[in-house]
Design goal:
The complex is a heterodimer. Chain A has 11 helices and 12 strands. Chain A is an alpha/beta fold. An 8-stranded mixed beta sheet of chain A has the order 6-7-8-3-9-10-12-11, sandwiched between helices. Chain A has a 4-stranded antiparallel beta sheet with strand order 2-1-4-5, with helices on one face. The longest helix of chain A is centred in the middle third of the chain and has 18 residues. The radius of gyration of chain A is 21 Å and the shape is globular. Chain B has 2 domains: 220 residues, Rossmann fold (3-Layer(aba) Sandwich); 103 residues, no CATH class. In chain B, 35% of the residues lie in helices and 22% in strands. The termini of chain B are far apart. The chains are: A alpha/beta, B alpha/beta. The interface between A and B is large, with 78 and 68 residues.
Chain lengths: 338, 365
């Protein structure tokens, strides 16, 4: 929000876009099936602006986590470019890649699986500092303690092991680890989904406070649209390996242009019995098709309530084009008509 | 006056562990009327699942129902012999679980599992059971039910498995269906379908439902009445609309404000409940919520736990303070930041000394 006005210290140019995804593909070949592959990410274009939070939503299997791993260079792309701060990171190797990694960090979903059970919390937080050669030995110890304090944990806990902490506390450790190297960009992959509601609120507030304090840019991936709307400035909706709509978080809710977005939003219950009495969810036919063999034309057409199939929807793949509000794009031949 | 179907009175279920006695359900009283939908909400470990398992007398070892009454249509469940409890489970009450992946037998066909649920209770003859399977799968809207009965669970998607579980639960036409987090493991669009299905079944068959969940939105969508549990105790109870518009217990209030709403544009801070749920071996003295309560007063710490008292028509709460007595400024204060700002300052100073390496950028972009 207000963070966009402040130019980050590290940037040379005033490019408002921190990260560009251009025509990214990730196909996982299936062995023994004669050249078939799972088309997890199948042609994604996306921009993430400095200081903003981009929410990425979609149902399980739509490719959002794979996209996150492409963006953080944890997986190589099959084709396409990932441009961070004007630099294509898809072809970087070795030392150059390490340098870029320091700028972007990731917070994972499962606070139980993403911390090494045999390392102390201090060790876990110091590892990235050692790794990138940040500060001297005593600097690092002090920094670990400040990091723990920052995320609301007792700095004297640095000798404890992950199993001694609750889920919410572990997620704080995961956040502290991501912050250790002072990144400008953090990918949160379902970072609050595994937590109890009251703890979830603590972590959401912490993420917001840290963003304001350190001018961070977030890619926030979640299946909970209410949480995504609460945290994000802009939202991108994915379906079967493609982005089908992007818009400002309020526009996408008030005037969804893509029928999938509309159905997705209508299916979320609201904690208000009065609203709930009149809410009529749009129910979609069938299930998400296989990403091995996606439907022809628009991938959503077999489930779409307004599709003309056979016709343009089953023959021509729609492009992500401006529709509706300013800054809003949808990939649909009949955008806004659902 | 509606007829009471199930009544729990001062139910205590405890787990006898090496660390001590865990009072998972600590004097819970509640009731469900015929055809009613009741929501039980609370965080993990508040005792909501154990309450449900106690009703079916399925509390796992080392747990035990220590005292209290469970009355179903006037019959005491705790005093039933093996034969009676078998008849009670499945015929009168059925339960559907959170994880449809692990609740079905992976090596048996789905149709047969549903059939088995019926033949085991001798309610239907084996030929009648067989023909009912397809009818049940159709009722829970499994597409192409005729061919799907011969599928194994792995051939079903998550949503379809949950439908099959519901079909199994409904097989013997129980008068009460207990659903423990029935949609938590499912995608939102599938979740919406299951909610619709449960609403429809409640309307069409008049099956009473006990919905156990942490999701307040689900309760708003499905339930007529709601019970809020904390640390093994009921802390508030009332009609759904009343509880959502004027919750009186600070825990209920916090729960409702700790989840963002998808239909709300404001970027207001969420209320986060500080700290962690209490250890049920050594619960805090006084009101069990007082260490986490934003509106705590001395009385909450010193005096014994407050009783469950009437706060409005049909609404009871267990609190000395009550939200109607809390001042506006205290409510605002409950939303303030927990971030350690001086730690942030020190970290930023450190950064000034060790700046991030500049990565050369491509000029043309």
């Amino acid at each position: 929000m207000q963070a966009t006005e402040k130019a980050p210290v590290t940037s040379v140019k005033a490019d408002p876009v921190l990260l560009r995804v251009q025509g990214a593909f990730k196909h996982f070949p299936i062995s023994g099936l004669g050249g078939l592959s799972v088309r997890a990410v199948d042609g994604v274009d996306l921009e993430i602006r400095r200081g903003e939070t981009l929410g990425l939503v979609g149902e399980s299997g739509c490719g959002k986590s794979t996209l996150a791993r492409l963006i953080t260079a944890l997986l190589p792309v099959t084709a396409g470019k990932i441009i961070l701060d004007g630099q294509d990171i898809t072809r970087l190797r070795g030392r150059k890649l390490r340098r870029v990694r320091r700028k972007m960090q990731m917070i994972f979903q499962d606070p139980f699986a993403s911390l090494d059970p045999r390392m102390t919390v201090g060790g876990i937080l110091q590892e990235p500092l050692d790794n990138f050669g940040i500060g001297s030995g005593s600097d690092r110890t002090r920094r670990v303690q400040e990091l723990l304090r920052l995320v609301g944990l007792n700095p004297n806990f640095n000798n404890r092991y992950p199993h001694e902490f609750s889920g919410g506390q572990r997620q704080r450790i995961g956040i502290a680890r991501a912050l250790a190297v002072n990144p400008s960009f953090i990918v949160c992959d379902e970072a609050v989904s595994a937590l109890d509601v009251s703890i979830q609120a603590q972590i959401i507030n912490l993420l917001q406070d840290l963003q304001n304090e350190f001018n961070l840019t977030y890619l926030f991936i979640a299946h909970d649209l209410a949480v995504v709307r609460h945290l994000s400035d802009r939202i991108a909706v994915m379906y079967l390996g493609k982005v089908v709509e992007t818009a400002d978080r309020n526009d996408i809710y008030d005037r969804p242009q893509h029928p999938y977005t509309k159905a997705l939003l209508s299916s979320i219950p609201v904690p208000d019995p009065v609203v709930e009495r009149d809410r009529a969810p749009i129910s979609l036919k069938g299930e998400i098709p296989s990403p091995v063999n996606p439907p022809s034309g628009c991938r959503f057409h077999p489930r779409c309530p307004i599709a003309r199939a056979p016709g343009v929807c089953s023959e021509v793949e729609p492009l992500l084009e401006p529709h509706g509000a300013r800054d809003q794009s949808a990939a649909c031949h009949f955008a806004g008509q659902a | 006056m509606a007829q009471t179907l199930l009544r729990l009175e001062d139910l205590h279920t405890q787990f006898f562990t090496g660390r001590g006695v865990v009072k998972a359900v600590d004097g819970v009283s509640l009731h469900i009327d015929v055809g009613e939908t009741l929501g039980i909400v609370g965080e993990s470990g508040c005792g909501k699942t154990i309450t449900a398992l106690s009703v079916l007398r399925l509390v796992p070892e080392p747990g035990k129902i220590v005292s209290g009454k469970i009355e179903f249509r006037g019959q005491d469940v705790t005093k039933m012999d093996d034969e009676e409890i078998r008849d009670f489970r499945g015929n009168d009450v059925a339960m559907i679980f959170q994880d449809p992946m692990t609740s079905l037998n992976p090596v048996t066909k789905v149709g047969f599992q549903i059939e088995e649920a019926m033949t085991a209770h001798n309610r239907f003859s084996s030929s009648a059971a067989k023909s009912r399977v397809i009818e049940l799968l159709k009722r829970v809207r499994v597409p192409a039910a005729e061919s799907r009965v011969k599928d194994y669970p792995h051939q079903f998607s998550g949503g379809m498995r949950q439908r099959a579980m519901i079909a199994m639960g409904l097989a013997n036409e129980p008068s009460l269906l207990i659903a423990d987090e029935p949609t938590t493991a499912l995608d939102v669009t599938v979740q919406a379908q299951i909610i619709q299905l449960m609403k429809q079944l409640n309307r069409e068959l008049g099956t009473a439902m006990m919905l156990i969940t942490h999701n307040m939105a689900l309760v708003a969508s499905l339930c007529q009445r709601v019970v809020v549990m904390y640390a093994g105790r009921v802390v508030e109870e009332g009609p759904v609309e009343q509880i959502f518009t004027s919750p009186q217990h600070p825990y209920t209030w916090s729960l409702l404000r700790s989840v963002p709403r998808v239909d709300e544009a404001r970027k207001d801070r969420l209320v986060s409940i500080r700290g962690l749920p209490p250890d049920l071996v050594n619960p805090p003295p006084g009101c069990k919520f007082h260490p986490r309560c934003p509106f705590v007063i001395d009385r909450c710490r010193v005096e014994p736990e407050p009783p469950l008292e009437q706060v409005a028509t049909n609404q009871v709460a267990r609190c000395w303070v009550l939200m109607s007595n809390v001042k506006e400024e205290d409510i605002a204060a409950a939303k303030t930041s927990a971030l350690s700002l001086d730690a942030a300052k020190i970290l930023k100073q450190d950064l000034a000394v060790a700046p991030v390496d500049e990565v050369p950028s491509n000029a043309g972009n």
